[in-house]
Write the structure tokens for this entry.
Amino acid sequence: MADAQIRAKVNQKLIESGEYERLSQYLRQKLIEDGWYDQVTELASDTLRAQENPNFENLVDLVEPEALALVPEYVKIELLGMIKRFLEGIVDK
Amino acid sequence: MSTVIVSRAPPTNDPNTKRASPSPRSSTSLSSSNKRKFSVSNGLPDPSRSPSVARKTAPVESSSAHGSQGSPSAASSNGTTNGENNSVSTASDGKYNSDSSIMSGINMDRGVPQHAVGCVHVKQLLSSPSQELALKSYRQAVRVALELRDRTSDMSAFQVRRCRICGELLTTTFMCLQCPSVGCRRSKHAEAHSRDIGHIFGIDSRSGHLYCFACKDYVYNYTLEKIRKEREELLEAKKLKKRSRKALQISADDEMLVEQNSKVPPCQAGLRGFQNMGSTCFMSVILQSLIHNPIIRNDFLSGSHDSNRCQRENCLGCRIDEIFAEFFTSPTTTGFGPALLLTTAWKTQRSLAGYSEQDAHEFLQFILDQLHATSDAKSSSDADYCGCIVHRTFCGQLQSDIVCPNCKSATVTIDPLMDLSLELRDRKSDSSRILSLQQCLEKFTSPEKLETKYMCSFCSTRQEVTKQLTVKRLPLVLSIQLKRFEHALKSNKIDDHVSFPMQLDMTPYTTNSRSKKSYIYELFGVVCHHGKINTGHYTCSMKNREGLWFNFDDAMVTLSSEKQVLKSNAYLLFYIIKELS
């Protein structure tokens, strides 16, 4: 199957099984616990205060890279593991 | 410094079990209203004309902090700096809101002020002949976005929101206001559409907020926000049971009555210092702790002690009520001189008269006692079950277990608990080491062998009994005193830093610590003492409704931060339960 088709099927399974929602909630939870939300909020506040012409696009450009970098490794690994397990579960052997 | 409001907990997306049946904004319905010609200038307007709307005033200078007090730039409330509209919404709208925290859960989204136009482009659109069409399209789009948002396992919901250029489903997209186009943010497809076709307005397909590609920002226009909020509230209401839904509906007459007869609180309401009227800083800090105590504050602001009707003489309840009224309705930001409160306090307790520095903790106990005494809601003389706001807020229960080592019988006593006074050192082991707050609590609740022998009533022998204190019932607000003042042979003050957390889990110190419930508390106030034991100065740090920390030094109020607060040498700590289960 073409790449795009596989992707579409995976997305469908992901969403309809409720796994996407579960993964999202889990990620959200882990990021709160880790304090990531607080860190990024502070970063965004500080960045905004320093901007002369604040707007959303500038804010995202400045904050997004660092916010992504601040995500702890173990969270990334855990999530990847969960996604991998899900994929293994839906692929025909 | 712009007042960017931050809140704590992230979005919670409760799956909606009662599915609303949306009318998806399909392509067919849109192309039927083909005459989508908005008389906005074709192509992108000059972005340099969009006003810079950062509100740069510090929160203490209240004039333009909320953007609604006459400063011209505040008229176009910029999405990123609009403090009111941010994170304090109670609906789960995908923002980092505080659904589950009592600190800001009680706060309500006040929406944008009436003159908020969003940006110059929206203003233009809504004053053009196309405004009706624009409003209609916006209303439709918002309905789609919000109704689809709750359908988290529905593929078709994601399909409607997908980017029409790259087909991405799991990413932020914008629905064009003027045509059926939907583009993603990540790969800049929505931006490309705005550039190539000239449709500069996008509607966030999850939150319904309007994005202006000319301003490169989310923009909040009063009329549009009203539409969005109405839909959001409608959907939230649908989720509740019919009975409670009825309670939410308010008639137009009632609404008008409320609007005409209420006063909008000034910006940063409740944020004000106290003038020092001669070593009265010990009072100021305690008063601030009451003003920033969400439960006490809400009770007084709801009018539970009406100083106009109260008949008591020298009523401290009235004085506190007056202070709340003053702080939350007067636009002044200069320090408040609590002269009337002082005289009332002096008349009630002579020892407070005079100009010597007193202990803040003692004053706290005094004022709570007085608020109980002057409360109309106080019930039994039994503190445990008194219905006054003071007891309902601060009163817990402390259990004392005395175990006889001989016959193992236990005597259990339960006493009311209004605050915890903790020793800072472990006398038994290393008496020079200062413990952390958690260690102090641990020490407080660990079994201790009493030195003097007691007669056991069960086995009738004199024994060295073991005593253990545990918290049987936790209060809503936990006030902790760190015993920094030693009155041994020589009066001494322990000035060392005692570390304490922003969030405190009290479970290990409760009587049934084996229960799976977790009792998490959130810090909202810290009182510090500076100087020597008899001469000194009190300051405090308090957290406001929006999660911002402020430092209070008599009449001087400054913006602080979590980091700074955690570094301070606390004397009194105020924690509030994080979630009301």
User: Anything to note?
Assistant: Chain B is about 30% helix and 20% strand. Residues 275 and 337 of chain B are 5 Å apart (CA to CA). The mean pLDDT of chain B is 78. The longest helix of chain B spans residues 131-149.
